[in-house]
Protein 1
Amino acid sequence: MSKVCDICQKSTVSGNRIQHKHSIGWRYKAPKTKRIFKANLREIEVERDGVTKKISICMKCYKKLRKEAELELNS
């Protein structure tokens, strides 16, 4: 299973972890190490055209889908 949202294509990205020490010697040269930001994925089953399919979806898209489903039920 790939670590990509099937709706918005959000995936794993890399960045820096910066260690900030509040002393004079560290002021201009804070140590930086690589780190990884992973998408918060959840696997759900979606029915389209009568076919049930499992998709990986990030929580931001999942919340939007739940909100749309609630609006459809209420109206």
Protein 2
Amino acid sequence: MSSVSHSLQLAPEVGHYCGLFGIFGHPDAAELTYLGIYAQQHRGQESAGICSVRDGHVRRHASLGLVTQVFDKKTMKDLRGEFAIGHVRYSTTGSCNDANCQPLLVQYGGGQVAVAHNGNLINAAQLRRERESQGAIFQTTSDTEVILHLLASPQFADTPDPLGAVLHALRGAYCLLFIFPDRIEAARDPLGLRPLCIGRLENGAMVVASETCALDIVDAEYLRDVAPGEIVTLSEDGLSSRMFTEPGTVRRAHCIFEQVYFADPSSDVFGQNAHAFRVALGRQLAREAPAGADLVIPVPNCARCAAIGYSEESGLPRERGFTTSHYSGRSFIMPTQYERDLAVKMKLNVIREVVRGQRLVVVEDSVVRGTTTRGKMGALRKAGAREIHLRVASPPIRHPCFFGIDFPDQRELVATNRSIEAIRDYLEVDSLAYLSLDGMLDCAAHAPGDYCTACFSGKYPMTLTEPVNKYGFEHSTTATRH
């Protein structure tokens, strides 16, 4: 009899955003950029793209699909150059379609420029309306295109530092890579909401990436993070830097959800290893919410680190309660509900012999909508689990995110207007406990005030002037949602 049964048919919990990679000063820049975005495929599975420079000309290839699907030997040969930028995308503004694939490449008064963006601009609608009223024509429904229109506008192009002036006008979360015929420019928003790091190869080539796992894959040495409010230039003159906002005038607000959930466990994010942080969360969770049980099992994949910490702190043995297919991809960043449901159905199975008759502590990293978690708990119950004590290694998510995480509708959040007991009843578990906000922040490397905890606390690092809608730029007659 097979030890694996009870395939899960579940909805996704949360979507992701994007991954960036850039390299200057290497004859195999395009190939290394391919590796860099491949290492960050977990940050976006909708599309992939690379722009490179050869003989003073920017070349581009981008399409829907995974990195391995988008590029072949011919396209990589066409992209050969000495510097390049790359992007993997999950759409947080605009649909999943060919027009929105990044990097976006345009020709304007200053020549060629391409941009790749990780984050979400909360004033993009206002900026777009202003440009359209002046006759600008937009080719995409992505907030990123607004940045290119600002760069081409005389209002900014005629200033001493056009890029700095443009960035100063943006509000929201953004890490950006620009490629010009002679240089790469990397920038990070003044709050430092999203991660962006700098590395160096043995031959002196400089690298910029969203996560340090991308530096590892190309054997680059980590140097430092791009500072909040900083523009870093990579060119024949080496690395130079300038600030587009006054240092210290805006507080830091690193997205704590990067460390809780999104970043690869091998990455160092905001100066702290993601795996070590999550193990610490698990330890703290065991101290705050012990449970009388026989086994600790994680919900794959991100909760494995927290389950290690919970097991070590509680003294309960850790087991593997689910199998995970390595071929189905990450369901939560797939573009449609149908694809997500199908991917999770193919991805997770319960190991019946492990869970039958056992009192389980099930460790989750987070619970957002609750639909996926409820399905997993039901599958464990059907497989014969005697008791299920769900422990969540982060606080209840009660508030929407407008800075790049795709759960902007508060009505979708299971913790909105529900008590812990009501959530427990909905998830159909014997007990439920979340890590406290203070407990989570105690595990972080920086002071509590250096993090954005808005999805947990409701305290946003900036004020929203109008509603943010992922599909707000799309007209009903032309919107395409894949």
Protein 3
Amino acid sequence: MTKSFDFYFDFISPYSFLAYKKLKSLYKNNEININYKPILLGGLHKLGDITAPAFNERKMKNMKNDCKLVAEKNGIEFKWNDKFPINSLYLMRGYLVVETKLKKNFFDTCFNAYWKDNVNILEEKNIEKILKDCSIEKSFFLEGIKSSIIKDELKQLTNNAFKKDIFGAPTFVVNNKIFWGQDRLDYAIDEYNFK
């Protein structure tokens, strides 16, 4: 049986971006079988009655500094986005809409635009650029994110994460063990590599 490494993420999460970049640098040849699991972080927080750090001034200040430290230590290009936080609903649905062969590029492009290039990824012209760069047809994407099937799928993924006791992003699940936060990535990798 192929081992799996579940990576729960939301584009709004800077720590998801940092964990993804670290994973990418460690495993350039896709040696880990990663299952990317999109969730709506705001929805997950609501289910768990959690106030996000973005809405606490002291936590927010620390989070900005912390992300900068993590990025510098790992050689990751990172810039705090001026438009943080945003409502990532449409882009998270979009990840589900995009064809499998284009998901990786969409994932990479959205994350880089938001957390490397300081782009407002909710502006129409910027969404159009992301879609164009990823060879995704605009009308297909816009129709897809309004689909009740896609809406229900994202809601279900978020609810399933909550039922598994996942409460934030990134979260990694390996061998049914939960590892929360980019600073637990090494532990998740150790579990994955455990014979």
